[in-house]
Amino acid sequence: MSNFDLTGTVALVTGASGGIGGATVQALADAGARVIATDMAQTATVAGATEYRPLDVTDEDGWAALAAYVDATYGRLDILVNNAGISVTDAIADTSLATFRRCMQINVEGIFLGTRAMADLLAKSGADRRGGSSIINLSSVGGLAGAPFMSAYCASKGAVRLFTKCAALEYAALKQPIRVNSVHPGGIDTNMMDTIYARYVETGAFPDEETARATVSAGHALGRMGTPQEIADGIVYLAAPAASFMTGSELVIDGGMTAH
């Protein structure tokens, strides 16, 4: 189990109050990491977190301040999980430019700002750790394939996928010990999915939420939705020395959804 041991590491997770974010904080802590949980609320309790810090991932100054705080308080950062994100479920004709831009701002710019702000600290910490430091960006199956009524969301997650690859190649070219990978969940039982079901009904895609849920579940080869823990386990793998030869890769955890 030493290849999955994160004892002595410091991790930061954005969007930590959500289903996948919360499960990730606990899973990283269970593996031995000290975990800084962040989200929009000024105060929050996140199980497994060493501490909670408020963060708007679209705030450039907020990221800079957090990087300085982590350096001063912990002296290192080994794992950055860019998990914060929103979904937009609407017809293209009904999606305002402001809504489209907001989706891009949170889902894409937030990851760019976090990566840029934490890169120096990650590089310093990665120098004395097998496999280096690890950045894990949450994309989606929506970053691999399109879906009706999800244009803004899929566009943003596709951007996350390619930004991840560019960052991985760049840090490798610079000989910086930072691995960068993306995670692509399928349908996961979270509050976000409940919101998507409701929006599907409102757009007329499905007659009711039960039908929406059943149809989405059936779209997975395993015939069910995933759990936040199943995604968190994959994130721990990418953060650990076990994944020391992985960078620029896509970890697809989707119950066979994209295998069709």
Could you explain how this protein is built, in words?
With 260 residues, this protein is an alpha/beta fold. Strands 3-2-1-4-5-6-7 form a seven-stranded parallel sheet, sandwiched between helices. Helix 3 (97-126) links the parallel strand 4 and strand 5. Helices cover 44% and strands 14% of the residues. The radius of gyration is 18 Å and the shape is globular. The model has no long low-confidence stretch (mean pLDDT 97). It has seven helices and seven strands. Helix 1 packs across helix 7 (228-239), helix 2 (60-74) runs parallel beside helix 3 (97-126) and helix 5 (191-203) packs across helix 6.
Offer a quick outline of the entry.
InterPro entries: KR_dom, NAD(P)-bd_dom_sf, Sc_DH/Rdtase_CS, SDR_fam. By secondary structure, the chain is α/β, with parallel strands linked by helices. It has 7 helices and 7 strands, in the order E-H-E-E-H-E-H-E-H-E-H-H-H-E.
Structural features:
globular, seven-stranded parallel β-sheet, alpha/beta, 260 residues, SDR_fam, Sc_DH/Rdtase_CS
Which of globular, elongated, flat, extended, rod-shaped describes the shape?
A: globular
* Contiguous uncertain segments of 5+ residues: none
Helix content: 40-55%
Structural class designation: alpha/beta
Distance between the ends = 34 Å
Q: What is the H-and-E element order?
A: EHEEHEHEHEHHHE
Radius of gyration: 18 Å
Strand order of the largest sheet: 3-2-1-4-5-6-7
Keywords: Oxidoreductase
Pfam family, one: adh_short_C2
Organism: Sphingobium xenophagum
Protein name: NAD(P)-dependent dehydrogenase (Short-subunit alcohol dehydrogenase family)
